[in-house]
Write a structure and sequence with these properties.
single chain; 41% helix; alpha/beta
Amino acid sequence: MYAGFFQLTQVPFSLTPDTSFYLNLPQHEAALTVLRTALNSGEGFIKVTGEVGTGKTLLCRLLLKQAPSDWQLAYLPDPTLTPLELRWALAQELGLKFSASIDAPQLLHLLQRQLILLASQQKRVVLVIDEAQALPDATLETLRLLTNLETEQQKLLQVVLFGQPELDQRLAADSLRQLRQRITFSQRLYGMTSWQVKHYIRHRLSVAGCEQAVFSEER
């Protein structure tokens, strides 16, 4: 209804994260810098948390979009997986084919072999998980064990967790202390200031095609 009035060519406030609308606010740029630094240093676990609406999924997709060619990315948007489902999801993201005849030990062996192959091709394997606060405890432990796979020189798998603050609360549990100790880089996203909200609205409207002023100048 308002598209014609504002001369919009697309919907400016869709719920679907669209990287073409990305606005480089300081908190988001800081998170991207931490992610790139951590991944380039070869660390096993990186964590980004924030409340609903702070831009976690958009950052996640921007990271995937801007990944250099030597990264082999595996993206899991649905974290509600059992340990075996997680292994298979990762295996399929890395190019392995599903087979019901392969049991858990065989699958782990195939995963390790595939990771070693990718490392020999100078590929950095990065597993990105969105909504990580929903990962079951057993699946989180499986993730930790998967990051044990390594050569003498490097980790074969790096993991980036994007999640709501509940993820921090869950990782504080004594049963997950080993995983918590593996997280060497962590970043918290905070909500926008009032000035940032105004800038954000103007930016999204502009990207969507609006050329007229929306807010009056403050006196």
